[in-house]
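Long-time lurker, first post. I've been practising inverse folding by hand and with some scripts of my own, and I keep getting stuck on stretches where the structure tokens seem ambiguous. Below is the full token string for one chain I'm working on. Before anyone asks, I'm not after the true native sequence, just a reasonable design that respects the backbone. If someone could post their per-position residues I'd love to compare against what I wrote down in my notebook.
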């Protein structure tokens, strides 16, 4: 199986294939021209499902089998006992992990496979550092916006907005229905971020909280009082022509040529080279960071590969709420802190720490009615006594976001601070980001 120490990343776009025969499906990856194959006796993993058996086997391109799927993949990690790949095929798409347990058995699990109904799943960025100075000219840079990622589909003058989770969020942001004039008579698919801007024009994730979960008659009143903005940073399709295969630089040039602005739609700035200066500008303006994108990179839906890098000024992490502890003083009788977790490679929810700061009174009032009480902790690992003695357990249904200083050696977040709930991620999609 994968050789010890072979952690070097394969360039994005290597081929993969899945064949089907009498014994079932066989997944075939390539590493430096060498095939690595796993039989999938229980079939391929489905989005947010459990880990399934993956049996190491011989080359899957033998006679007597027929093609089941094929496409390109980006290798995120390749170790002796763990392989993480992002697949872009006709059937298999999104990030998948193959991992070996202590008993020697291999398993496969989908980490963020796409949801049925959405037109496509956004391309994602890996956390990392700025490209080295000698490679700076090969990259473009954008500011990282603190909002909700959304794919926008315009057909016959009608807008549909899709969150990264595959949820249709069109009705939550009616102020975006007024399309830019340039879209009149045209169909398009664009990628962008829904944000709430403060008085200085900076994204305010807290202000967006009041809108993210609203679907009732109050939505249009809220939209009129404090409208959101849709920041557009990629053009994926125009009048039926797919632009996914074009290099990033060409897609951005097409977007700028359109002049896609109007209503609450605003194209975002981008910069060829000069990554260090763009990152410094993001810090000076209180932004979350930047995203570096290779100028020659195509758009690979659902893939989290090395062609896009997010460079953050502040560490943030999506978390699943699994319980809470009572407050003291002014919080007596209510929620004092949240017990949160992330999913490991096997799909188990593991404890990541407790969050007791960053809450507003309104946030605490919003949270408690959303809890579904549970009889036992949802975390797979053993928790310390000081956590469990007064804990109230809840079903792991709510996803939030925290800012934190660092990960500790035992997998806990140091100094986490609550930023708010988010509904653009499903609980099963929440994994450690850094």
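-- Answer (accepted) --
I ran through it position by position. Result:
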């Amino acid at each position: 199986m994968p050789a010890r120490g072979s952690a070097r990343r394969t360039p994005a776009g290597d081929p993969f294939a899945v064949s089907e025969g009498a014994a079932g499906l066989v997944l075939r990856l390539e590493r430096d021209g060498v095939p690595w194959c796993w039989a999938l006796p229980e079939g391929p993993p489905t989005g947010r499902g459990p880990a399934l058996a993956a049996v190491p086997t011989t080359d899957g391109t033998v006679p007597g089998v027929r093609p089941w799927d094929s496409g390109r993949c980006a290798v995120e990690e390749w170790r002796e006992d763990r392989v993480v790949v992002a697949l872009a095929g006709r059937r298999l798409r999104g990030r998948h992990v193959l991992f070996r347990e202590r008993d020697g058995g291999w398993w496969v699990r989908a980490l963020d496979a796409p949801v049925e109904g959405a037109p496509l799943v956004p391309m994602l960025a890996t956390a990392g550092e700025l490209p080295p100075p000698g490679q700076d000219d090969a990259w473009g840079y954008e500011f990282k916006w603190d909002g909700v990622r959304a794919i926008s589909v315009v057909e016959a003058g009608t807008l549909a907005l899709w969150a990264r989770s595959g949820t249709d969020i069109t009705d939550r942001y009616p102020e975006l229905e007024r399309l830019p004039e340039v879209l009149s008579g045209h169909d398009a698919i664009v990628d962008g971020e829904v944000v709430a801007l403060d008085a200085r024009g900076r994204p305010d994730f807290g202000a967006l909280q009041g809108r993210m979960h609203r679907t009732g008659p109050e939505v249009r009143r809220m939209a009129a009082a404090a409208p959101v903005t849709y920041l557009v940073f990629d053009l994926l399709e125009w009048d039926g022509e797919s632009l996914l295969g074009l290099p990033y630089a060409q897609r951005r040039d097409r977007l700028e040529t359109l002049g896609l602005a109007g209503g609450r739609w605003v194209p975002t700035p981008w910069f060829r080279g000069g990554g260090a200066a763009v990152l410094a500008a993001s810090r000076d303006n209180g932004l979350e960071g930047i995203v570096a994108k290779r100028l020659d990179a195509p758009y690979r839906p659902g893939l989290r590969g090395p062609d896009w890098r997010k460079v953050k000024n502040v560490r943030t992490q999506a978390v699943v709420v699994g319980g809470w502890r009572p407050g003291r003083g002014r919080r007596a009788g209510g929620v004092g802190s949240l017990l949160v977790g992330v999913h490991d490679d096997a799909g188990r929810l593991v404890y990541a720490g407790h969050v007791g700061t960053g809450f507003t009174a309104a946030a605490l009032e919003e949270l408690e009615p959303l809890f579904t009480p549970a009889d036992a902790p949802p975390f797979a690992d053993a928790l310390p006594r000081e956590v469990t003695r007064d804990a109230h357990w809840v079903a792991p249904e709510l996803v939030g976001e925290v800012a934190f200083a660092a990960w500790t050696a035992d997998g806990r977040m140091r100094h986490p601070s609550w930023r708010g709930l988010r509904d653009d991620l499903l609980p099963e999609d929440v994994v450690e980001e850094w």
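A couple of notes from the structure itself: The chain has three domains: 14-110, 124-311, 315-429. The two ends are 26 Å apart (CA to CA). Happy to go over any region you disagree with.
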